[in-house]
Amino acid sequence: MLHDNPNAFCQNPLDRAGVRRKDEAWVESQRRRPGARLMLVYRGEVLTERRPADSVIQWLGMDALRALPVSRELVFLGLWKGEPVFAVDASGAPDAPLSDIGTYASLRAAGPYLPAEELSIAGQAVWLLNWNLRNIHCTQDGDRTEPREGGFKRVNLRTGTEHFPRTDPVAIVLPYRGEEVCLGRGPHFPPGFMSAFAGYLEPGETLEQCGARELYEEAGLTVSKIAYRYSQPWPFPSSLMMGFLAEVEGKELTIDPTEIEEARWFTREEVAAILDGRHEIMAPPPMAIAHHLMKDWVAGVRA
User: Fold this and answer.
1) Which GO terms describe its biological process (predicted)?
2) Beta strand pairing status for 83-89 and 37-42?
3) CATH number, domain at 66?
């Protein structure tokens, strides 16, 4: 059984059909199946059906492709309950297509309202479509690439060079000392908003080393113990967040002002109040992995 993961974008129900999608004829045959579903994405936003209390993806049949004013490559996302699921990007259209039958919403805006499974599928779709659009040309010689395996690979047909979807690993770390936890605010955060500390993995690092380095560089904190909690796909545009709790040796802060504008220590009661909206400090939203690291720490989880 897979470890429980409470984070957004982590409940993807699709069978990605990794072996079968290598057969181009099989992928093409899935497009013609009567039960095939199509997700429409326009400039990073997904076509949804808004309802009084929630939302769902506005799934389309494959015949909807004929109504699009531009020709775009499809990506095959996988099989859901045995039926194929595709996505297409229509960002080249001058206006949002088919907006008369639904509402376009960003993943951040739709996150609290979409069912967890549909949000996860939408995250995969936006991620994969973005990667395909950014890799139309080969990085080695500039030749045009062609999609293969339903969009999970692109190939320079002249040289045979293969390109695969990129994932950027990020260590996000919640540091604590005794019964207090440290939160920080980056220059891009709104006033009053504080969160855990994060940074991209550098070449030759383990994720634990990355987390310890980021804490030291951003806040001057030295890690004595660090423990992995869970990961989260983060399609903005292509990160994988790796969440850690870290015990640190001391509480003295030395802040890197280019990365952190403010950092403070908070008690368990204060963090609980932040999460509940009873504090002047705003917490990361529930769709962010930092929110769940804070909840874990309040509940007594430690490195």
Assistant:
1) NAD+ catabolic process; NADP+ catabolic process
2) parallel
3) 3.90.79.20
